[in-house]
Design brief:
In chain A, helix 6 runs parallel beside helix 7 and helix 10 packs across helix 16. The longest helix of chain A is centred in the C-terminal third of the chain and has 17 residues. Chain A is α/β, with parallel strands linked by helices and 462 residues long. In chain A, 41% of the residues lie in helices and 18% in strands.
Chain lengths: 462, 462
Amino acid sequence: MSSRMSSNLKYLFYPRSVAIIGASRTPGKIGYEILRNIIGFGFEGKIYPVNPNATEIMGLKVYPNVLDIPDEVDLAVISVPARIVPKVLNDCGLKGVKVVVIISSGFSEVGNVEAEHKLVEIARKYGMRILGPNVFGVLYTPSKLNATFGPMKVLKGYIAFISQSGALGIALMGWTFLERIGLSSVVSVGNKADIEDSDLLEFFMNDKNSRVILIYMEGLKNGKRFIEVAREVSKVKPIIVLKAGRSERGALAAASHTGSLAGSDEIYSAAFRQVGVLRAKSIQEAFDWARTMVSQPPPLNENVVVITNGGGAGVIAADACAEYNLNLMDLPEDLAAKFREYMPPFGSTRNPVDLTGEATEEAYGDSVKVALEDSRVGAILVLYCHTAISDPGMIARSIARSFIEARAPKPLVVSFIGGVECYEGLKLLNDLGVPAYPSPDRAAAALGAYYRWARYAGIVKK
Amino acid sequence: MSSRMSSNLKYLFYPRSVAIIGASRTPGKIGYEILRNIIGFGFEGKIYPVNPNATEIMGLKVYPNVLDIPDEVDLAVISVPARIVPKVLNDCGLKGVKVVVIISSGFSEVGNVEAEHKLVEIARKYGMRILGPNVFGVLYTPSKLNATFGPMKVLKGYIAFISQSGALGIALMGWTFLERIGLSSVVSVGNKADIEDSDLLEFFMNDKNSRVILIYMEGLKNGKRFIEVAREVSKVKPIIVLKAGRSERGALAAASHTGSLAGSDEIYSAAFRQVGVLRAKSIQEAFDWARTMVSQPPPLNENVVVITNGGGAGVIAADACAEYNLNLMDLPEDLAAKFREYMPPFGSTRNPVDLTGEATEEAYGDSVKVALEDSRVGAILVLYCHTAISDPGMIARSIARSFIEARAPKPLVVSFIGGVECYEGLKLLNDLGVPAYPSPDRAAAALGAYYRWARYAGIVKK
């Protein structure tokens, strides 16, 4: 691949101008939704709708052909019937477009492999890059670019999300907003005729706006290259993969969905493990992990401290720590003595540290502070069960304040168990940058995944 | 155990009168919270506060001693300091109280084993049953009885929840309300000096208001009896156990929490499996399973059909079905032909049945109807990814209507993936009695657990 082609990839994320070929005046049409999202999400570059049968859409001048645009075009989004795509793509080449997102379907995913090869040939001729075909678009929050026909609203954050599935990817965009999960990017890779996961990994590795790369994957076109690239990227930032088609039946479904040959699941697992790729088993797990990784510094060392106000939650957390290879440190006597100041006599300094049901917001804030300030502690897991004598909102504030005042020196993950007030407390913590989950095992799993990555990257010793 | 003692257990759930010994006028005190909950939750029997230093609390006449109450007392809730408990308990015995809930702590959980034995001796002398000591109380929605110091509001439903942990049990009461999960009962078993899980299993087995029994367990006092009882109960209704203390560290934490000897985890697992007890690994999983079991009829046969509008969600579901031993049936041609009427030509009748992103609410309603009406289909899993052209609320209504019109002949579980509109759709489905989850794997796991139980109970063939 020429360096020009490689460098052109950046225009997928940082275009100075975008042409929407197939822009439409009809709500519900893809060419309408994409234009609406580009405008509505606040893109600050130039926007050029292209449609031979219109003169103005959403207040913007419309051009009959991309070649008629009196300006350079960095990114073109094509949403026209499959049979017209080659002609339009060729026009883009003549125009000097850097990257083309081909939304249109009707190519290899329905067996039309030849037509797809043709697209790649045209693009290569002009040094253009192609995302797609058969994609829902690209989103990059640092550029305020939402060139997708998914939801318009997405929270800004540090997770780069790559999806091989269209419907699932779009649905998850909405879900992340509901769950207050921030994204740097969403890339729909579709048929991967040109741009594939490896290219995106290379871009995101050097992208300071992305701290974790999360991939929904059904299959790989070039597994060897992916593994080589992932090996290097994983040393810099975590890669989480939800690889579907694990089972025989799932692999069959994947084959009929994206035409992916899922390959032996054991081979994927072994290869991923070797190069530090974290394999998640569910959507929830993947985003749970990512939420902790983007907001927290890496663990300082292998010693985890669990702080709780309920013995049962502590037992569940201890089980989860064992499952996810987290080492509950045996507290040195001087440290145990400090914790004892914040609990009644029947509390426990056996890790999990049990502040008991009498724990107030001060006890939480102060004991979290102790754990944050002691450099022998590598990471902290805080659990809270709603009690009649404490207010989850105040507990949340108290924990977050200690974390912020200590300047976030090590990972802190939290779980609140209870009703609507706990739910509000969880939202508050997440909004303040402290990852918080509704159950202890999910919090422990997220921390466990972070440790797995940190061990691979050599940040903590294995 | 005498039959009188055994029959007295029913007064824990169906008392005609309740005495609250240690009732208090001070908000925040346990003796206040329990009285407030009993009154506020609408208990229709007689309520007798007992406190030698008060004459009226919350508008009710207060008695100095339980013996002064001019009426029979079926249930007494004791919340007084540990050292006074034996005297008060003896008074209860003299009064002819049937069941006593001893809230007070300070017994075997802090090493005070002798004092606890003494309580049992007193109770035995009078044929009384004891719940506790060291509990947060009992709740039974059919009797409008909330004799706990947990939250006052709980949704009525069919899950009987037994908790060995206090703080966790209280926190989960609030959580079930948030998650719109209905409960028939919450029983805090605490130190299990007398009433233990097995007694409660026997009661709930014959309780038409309870369809599933869900236990948070750290340890058992009499494992052999539990297994014998569970074997019989499991034939009638599912038992789900979240057994904590799985790991060495978790077992240590359990020992310091409830004094439970967790025992070898493998032994628990093997014994549970043998007698049909379903072991959940997390709180979420346990309640996910229960939600499906209480609302859905058992599977008709081993053939599961998955209906989706997104290939990716279908692949994830197919993987989950394999993991949870659900058999995706190969559709007979006549059935496939019926589904084809509700999808475009590029849809798929390879199970998962893919209606494609073009699926409307009618397509969902009609295809679910086809699966409901065909007796070769044993259970249905419906997936929906939010798309721009469909409204999750309308999809939810359409699915629920088909289910209700077909008179719920087989289990239907649903997953919606997307933003806030999907969240509202999930709530609507759950409120209408169709279990709905935010991810395909959770829906599949719930159905998988139901099948595991149905195979044990001989409802579907293994």
